[in-house]
Design brief:
The complex is a heterodimer of chains A (254) and B (302). Chain A has 9 helices and 10 strands. With 254 residues, chain A is α/β, with parallel strands linked by helices. The longest helix of chain B is centred in the first third of the chain and has 28 residues. Classes of the chains: A alpha/beta (254), B mainly alpha (302). At the A-B interface, helix 2 and helix 3 of A face helix 7 and helix 8 of B.
Chain lengths: 254, 302
Amino acid sequence: MIEVKQAYKTFNRGTPDENPSIRGLSLKINDGDFVTVIGSNGAGKSTLMNLLSGSIQADSGSIHIAGQDVSTMPEYKRARFIGRVFQDPKVGSASDLSVAENLSLAMKRCGGRGLRLANRKAYHETFKEKLSHLDLGLEERLNDSIGLLSGGQRQAITLLMASMIEPHILLLDEHTAALDPKTADRVMRLTDQIIKEHKLTALMITHNMEQAVKYGNRLVMLHQGKVALDISGSERENLKEEDLLAQFSKLAKT
Amino acid sequence: MTLYALISSLELGLVFGIMAIGVYLTFRVLNFPDLSVDGSLPLGAAVSSVAIIAGINPWMALIAAFLAGGLAGLVTAFLNVRFGIMSLLASIVTMTALYSINIRIMGRPNLALLGEETVFSQFEAICPAFLQGNLISLFLYSLIICLLGLCLYFFLATEVGLALRATGNNPQMARAMGISTGGMTLLGVSLSNALVAFAGALYSQSQGSADVGMGIGTIVAGLVSVIIGEAMVRKKGVAWALLGALVGSCLYRVVIGFALATGTGDSIFALKASDLNLITAVIVVLLLAGPKLQLAARRSSK
């Protein structure tokens, strides 16, 4: 379970550029939830994601993951709970390293790195099997540099890396936004498949209302750094794109 | 250029090849431009010389130099990781401080190892008879480099080594994969400076002296070696890059040796040993500008 309590985050505090991004946000995500997060630009979606992953720390408030207070835990230590897929396909993997080396890094996301060989032959069967599920022909390209692959292929691999060791929560930050529509659709279906297969808890930011309604079992709309709407259960199942657009225009007026 | 001069150039190429491998580690693997090597090279020489004069085994002196270099690197990396001081600035600070420290260690700006035991004199004693003169040091350098190169190659293939490479290539992703990028920077910069100090110690043992000024231009020479190596060895991968740095270093010293040998004479354009840094700077510019100049030439010919 993930619990954010009364989180505040202001950027450039005390300067003319002062920008309150998260203003007293509280959110509880239960195990197995697949939450889609929507909101207009500047609503605090990405900041929420960064607060959870630890790339930035909140000014006040607390964050608990799996019963542990991680509020001040550095990003690399929090990685043991968290799998992440970024908006930019180039961010999720290391271009100069091979596909197999990148996947080997993911095998040790929860720590325990030592002086054993990193990219072990013993891993390769698992890698090939997981890559073949992507259906992109990548199982034959274990030794190619990741930099040679397309954005869609890289994003699919990042997804594999994030879920290689089952994370406590999977964070998806508009991870299909930089892809062409066909590839975006494919990566999104892969994401859904992986989440269902491993019964993962996931949080997905999206600007795509269709995605927001089609995937997940719970929807959260952020507005001015707070949760403005939190829909789950049967209400969520009957939710339509039009309803969301109506909510957007309603919030825009306030 | 005489055979003797060629062999001397190769010797220099090999010993500074160790330094070039250290520079490769920061410049390419960690993506951390580190100028402190200009100080850690003479640091290694100073520590090794003082140790030898104090009667310590020359091999132990090399190890002491290695550790001292590692410590210097640790300072640079700590300034960067803990206080967020930009890598270039942090390393310049360390380099500057090392100048004074090196003089402190030696007690004066230079030291001579007259008649002292060195790894070379010890090796000569156990060496087979067919190896003589310059060949002895050439052989010993090759042996040490093979050993160091293999160790480093295997280290970079380990889980920690891969984490180091990921840190340099994509720190954001590295953190998301549970890698302490700060810790890796500390480790990588230390290791790099340790290698450079080791090279300095080995060089001072072969020359029989240590000088506080011997480090000037180290970083540039290291960069040239890495870049020439990349141009020569076009294959990707850690093993090729390590080999490239070594080949680049040797080639660079041979070119310099050749320039100095042919450029002597009485004209005002005759080269002196002190022109080394100018020649190096010109080579760096040519190497870096080369691809752009080629492109411009191709465009204008169309």
